[in-house]
Amino acid sequence: MQAAKAGRSVSRRGSFLQNENVVGYFFAAPFILSFLCLTMIPMALSLYYSFCNYKIAAEPVWVGLKNFSDLMKDATFGNSLLVTIQYVIIGVPLKLVFALLVAMLLTKPTRLQGFYRAVYYIPSLIGGSVAVALVWKQLFGSRGPVVTFIKALGVKNFSFFGSTMWAFAPLVLCNAWQFGSSMLIFASGLKQIPKDYYEAAEIDGASTVQRFFSITLPILSPIILFNLIMQLISGFMTFTQAQIITDGGPNYATNYIALNIFKEGFSYQRMGYACAQSWIMLLIMAAITGIIFKTSSHWTFYEN
Amino acid sequence: MRKSIVILLIAAMLCTLFVPAMAEEKAKGWNNVNAEGYVFPDYSGQTLSIMWWGSDTRAKMTEEVIHLWEEKTGAKVEFEYYDGGTYWTQFQAKMAANGLTDVFQMGNNWLTYYDTIEPLNAYIDAGTIDTTAIGPAMISTTVNQANGDVTGISNGTNARCFAYNPALFDQAGVPYPTETWTWDEFADACRKIHEATGNPAVTTLEYNSLAFSVFTQWKEGSNFYTMDGTGFGFDGDTAPLAYLFDLLTTLQQEGAIADYGIQNEIGSNIEADWIAYGDSAIIMLSSNQFQALSNVAAENGITLELCTIPRVSHEGQSGMVVRSSQQMSIWKGSEKKEMAANFINFFINSVEANKILNCERGVSINSDVLAALKADTEKTNEVTAKVYTIIDLIGSFPDAANTSPAEPAANEEISDVLKKTYFQGLAEGKFESAQAAADLFWAEAQEIWAKHQ
Q: CA-to-CA distance for B106 and B108, rounded, in angstroms?
């Protein structure tokens, strides 16, 4: 008590360091500084470069909207937008369904609940790593167990990474397999649902399916919204697996937008053009997120 | 007073006349690491960084040489290495961060990274990099013809060629490739081997360089890129490309050549190619990679042979060239250029070091080193002898001197597009015909070229 009073009197005197706001800023400084240096400045620079002809280690030359008008005609870029959207549309719902399913299985209070959650979370921890990509490359490769199994079923000449039709499948599965963080968020959401709702529904004779669609889903909808947005964003930015496993191929079937940007900027030395692509990608992501937010009032349910 | 000043000035002028003459006398081979009683510079407490790409075999050898140099000079060398694909990603990232290593391995694509490379002319003139045992023709393989800059010192010469497994040829009852074997013979061999083994006969092909070879084979004096890499070197006739498109796509659809998935899985990791495990019979490679590949194959009881790239006709052009395999270059931003030059001098010229490296990066350009290696029966074993033989053979083809080894700045993108859009698109049936694809490619290649100017 004494100490607290003393503190307050000091701050009244207006000492700069004792000011509560200053303390707040001090603790927030690491984030603010790194946000400015590692996010804001690069973003501003990339916006500038997107209007330039820019090669790393050379002087940028202003070209106005040329990069953007070139993009409109660029078939490879159009294709990468298309395959990225395909990846997101198939991959994100799959991952969310997976996460919700496992989260529901793990809400049953058992002794090993904590252990199971940890185990299912591990793939997400090692998620974006090169090592996992290499493992999946082996697993679905031409001599991997999955292809061997499919061939044993009598399918001739089957190959995941050699076919434009199937190359995306292992990448989507690899992404869905890393459902841990969504699962944890779903699990905590499931815990928040009051037990009496289910009991009341049970007394009224509702089946398990009815209970799921009438109680669980509506109450969980704000959390679904959150997970959906997070996964959409990370889906649009998918890079490592495509680069390691398929190198964007075959015939650009998995040439996702982030990979295409990387190729343009680093391999072909057209950083300005790559920056323009990343801004288009940002706009598309912002638009989709915006639409989901706008429509969310129709399908999310807030108890209070 | 005045007179004395004039005398002094004249004396000073005379001295400047003498100094270069004296320096030149010193330059002649003063830094020859093979000379008896050579004293290595003392770099105790200093570090040098270096990066290269290549196989595990190469990594082991290079590490050994680095430790040898560390022992002799007291320096500490920080090194990193990657496979051929990852290397450029790393290189570009380091370039963007302005943090390249002091010494780096550079390919014939040096024009793409020209701004990062320190010209070595001064170090060669000063004799820090001793070139007394290196022929001028070998130095010129890494010179920018536009301005005379020496962009690096070649690690050795190589040639793109094929290797094959004779046992599988025997099994399928196919004759071995001859010096002038043709694409038709190649196709026939692939089909029969595929029939006999059930596996694709080939699992690694460098599509872009094959296509460029066929342009040279098609017409005497014709090349995809001109000799100096300043433009395209053919008259716009895309028939050679259509020919190769058709041939390879058909073979692939029959399963005689591996699909792009398998080829991508192997990537640039030559030691993972199926040929080393007895499953495929033919591989395209650079001659210096033959050692590493043979090492793995030998573990599986397989002996491989080298042969030429198939031709359009027996009497036609070979489309092959002996070129610099890769080179050691110094980073323009390095603060230890003198030390880096000394390292390169040791790496290229030391007989002791090259007995370890044993031409795995290419046939040594230093005549003393090559003579010492060839005289050493332990070092010149069956495998390396095959490499020497194929390089001598290709060098003896009359058209090899007119085959362009150039890799201009636009090449990376043109090659990528050729492979991914056209070769892979054809396999997916996205083009009406091979000729249509070839014409579309030619139009796009010119567009890409224009963008890089």
A: 7
The token pair that represents B284 in the structure block: 């395209």
Interface contact flag, B259 A164, Cβ < 8 Å: no
- Give the side-chain half-sphere CA count within 13 A for B41: 16
Are B59 and B81 in contact, with CB atoms under 8 Å apart?
A: yes
Point out which residues pair with B154 in neighbouring strands: B327
Q: How far is B161 from chain A (nearest CA, A)?
A: 25
| Cβ–Cβ under 8 Å, residues B355 and B371 | no
Taking CB atoms and an 8 Å limit, are A249 and B115 in contact across chains? no
Pairwise CA distance, residues B255 & B260, whole Å: 11
Shared fold status for B47-155+325-376 and B160-320+399-451: yes
Residues in chain A: 304
Q: Does domain B47-155+325-376 have CATH number 3.40.1390.30?
A: no
Identify the residue among A53, A165, A251, A261 best suited for mutation to test binding to B, counting B beta carbons within 10 A and taking the highest. Answer: A251
CATH fold of B160-320+399-451: D-Maltodextrin-Binding Protein; domain 2 (3.40.190)
Least confident of A32-41, A46-55, A68-77, A105-114: A105-114
| CB nearest B424 (choices: A141, A157, A251) | A251
Q: Would you tell me how many other CB atoms lie within 10 Å of the CB of residue B184?
A: 13
* Distance, CA of B1 to CA of A170 (rounded, Å): 90
Whole-number CA gyration radius for chain B: 24
* Residues whose CB is less than 8 angstroms from the CB of residue B37 and which lie 6 or more positions away in sequence, other chains included: none
In angstroms, what separates the C-alpha of A80 from chain B's closest C-alpha? 13
CA closest to A254 among chain B residues: B420
Q: List CB contacts of B385: < 8 A, sequence separation 6 or more.
A: none
* A12 C-beta neighbours (distance < 10 Å), count: 9
| B309: DSSP letter | P
Mean pLDDT of B29-51: 92
Q: Which of B89, B112, B265 sits opposite A269 (nearest CB)?
A: B112
Q: DSSP characters for B148-196?
A: --B--EE--EE-EEEEE-HHHHHHHT-PPP-TT-BHHHHHHHHHHHHHH
Sequence spans of domains, chain B:
47-155+325-376, 160-320+399-451
CA–CA–CA angle B121, B122, B126 (5° rounding): 120
- The answer to whether the CB atoms of A157 and B262 lie below 8 A apart is no
Choose the mutation target among B115, B203, B260, B444 for the interface with A, i.e. most A CBs under 10 Å: B260
| Helical spans, DSSP H, in B233-283 | 239-254, 260-266
- What domains appear along chain A, each with residue ranges and CATH number? 1-49 (no CATH), 67-299 (1.10.3720.10)
Confidence class for position A259, pLDDT limits 50, 70, 90: very high
Q: Test A251 with B89 for CB contact under 8 angstroms.
A: no
Q: What is the DSSP code string of B197-209?
A: HSS-SBS---HHH
Measured between its terminal Cα atoms, the distance across chain B in Å is 61
Residue of B265, B418, B424 for testing the chain A interface, max A β-carbons within 10 Å: B265
Chain B residues with CB under 8 Å of A79 CB are none
d(CA A260, CA A239): 9
Which residues contact residue B171 at a Cβ distance below 8 angstroms, ignoring those fewer than 6 apart? B193, B196, B197
Cβ distance of A247 and B412 shorter than 8 Å? no
For residue A58, give the nearest of B115, B409, B412 by CB distance.
Answer: B115
pLDDT at B15 over 90: no
**Confidence band for B4, pLDDT divided at 50, 70 and 90:** low
CA pair distance A255, A264, nearest whole angstrom: 12
Q: What is the ipTM of this complex?
A: 0.81
Q: Tell me, what amino acid is at A55?
A: K
What is the token pair recorded at B231?
Answer: 């433009």
Please state the φ and ψ torsions of residue A177, each to the nearest 5 degrees.
Answer: -65, -25
